[in-house]
Specification:
The protein is mainly alpha-helical. About 55% of the residues lie in helices and about 0% in strands. It is built from 25 helices and no strands.
Length: about 575
Amino acid sequence: MVRRMWSLYENSGGADEFRPDLQCYNLWIHAVAKSNHQTNHRQKRSSINNNNNIIEDVDSFRVGERAELILQEMRDRGIEPNVVSYTTVMDAYANQARLGDPKAPAQAERVLFELLERSEYTSNLEATPVTSDTVINAWAQQGTLEGAKKAQEILERLEAMSMTAGGSTSSSRRTSTPLRPTAHSYATVIYAWANSGGGTDAAQKASAILDRLLHARRNSKDAVRPDTVIFNAAIAAWASSGDPQCGTKADEILRQMQELHNDVYHDCQPDVVTYNSVLSAWSRSGHINAAVQAERILKEMILKRKEDPEKNPAPNVISYNTVLNAWSKSTLDGAQDRAETLLKFMARPDQSEIVPDLYSYSSVLNAIAKSKQPGKALRAKKLLDYMLDESSGIKHAELTPVPFNAVINAAAFSAVGTSDEEKREALQIAVTTLSLMRKHYVKPDSISYGNALKALANLMPSGKARYDMAIQLFTTCCEEGLVQDLAWNEVQRCAPLKYIDERLNLGSHVVSLRDLPKAWRRNTRFLSRKRRDQSPPGLGNSDSSINDLFSATAPPDVSRHLRRPVTMVEPSYQSGRDM
């Protein structure tokens, strides 16, 4: 469109109504900045305009570079860019960073400080907080320690500029309003640390920024007012840190928010994101009492909401699922009972605001699979059957292998301390569940086959019947290209390697997974486990109330004890291991 306008302008002999102006170019840059077109540098098709050197083909440059070339064309045409022009170019580089270019944030930073330099001499180039926040955001989106460090460096540089502004005595430089960081600037930098993967050190840096803000606010009411978003970012940093104290640290920040939110100088009312982040921190903490603490926070949310619905947020499905996840990982006695009780509370027929989804059921099934109680295979199968019933509200199109895998895993680990009758029942449940997947058009994955083979190895006596069943199951796994370590290891537990060699014509050279034909592993890279947020109504005739849910039957509070954070814990439906 701008090209056509220039053509009309030249053909009309220079009629002003056809001449593109500043607004036209800013809209052009904005359109480029918001485009999500990824560049393929190997397929450049250049088209040089007679009046300038802009390469017009959209495949030739990334969005930031294209936007900056338009900025240069503006100058060449005698149109002076304003602060909107520069800010939009920075936004284009930020978008380029989102598309995966690690060099784009540095380019955005270069444009920012070019603008700041020019603004000292040009009246229409006064930078705004949006300008600086755009660059901070570009670095923050990298999700790396380097990105977080760069974002904080810009923040600190802006802080220094705002403190020393006005000290220049040069008569050639105009006096301008100093560029100061905003609450958004601080929140973005804290989130950068939260997403950096820097562990405890990153969480401490995020907390240090929050503490610095609170200190500044106490000393000056003109300082940036820490808001809910800033506090939430600090909690998120601890939740993602992997630190064994992350639950406690997140809880402390929540209490701090609750104390300060009534102060007119602060704006930090906890919202549902706040509480969910604290719940996530407890769930990830590895604390032996993590699930109890998470349930305490959930109870607090429910009670506060009842007391004052206008001020206090209601828990959502994520809140409940996070607590269920905590119980599914808990080693406390009765963890599976608490998980089931919470699921029933979610599915009460007298309310429709919170209803379990596929993740809810999968977490409870995982808790049952990990338990040491007898009859867990049958218990898990009954819950799966209810989930598959139309009354649960779970749509069959949403189903994934995850809940089925948890039931098969529960059956596989029903071998220790159980009667022969229960073992036979557990084996039947494992076989039936694998068939049930196909009935509901859910394709088994590598974990499904691995858990089923584990059930054969654990529950069937050694002999030709077990060997043949294992070979048949493993052959299907091979045909579907889903062989991974779990399935390969378990088939070797089911049958002697010599027997496997003879039936599958492997040859004596096969000793590990990498020696197997590649075709048997061809689909393992595409495995995915989806989470959905759809809702079932109830679990039958349950009269669970809030008092039942948080009654004294909960496992005792084993306070101030920590599991050593030496290993990463996987849900049993993912790893196939008994936890």
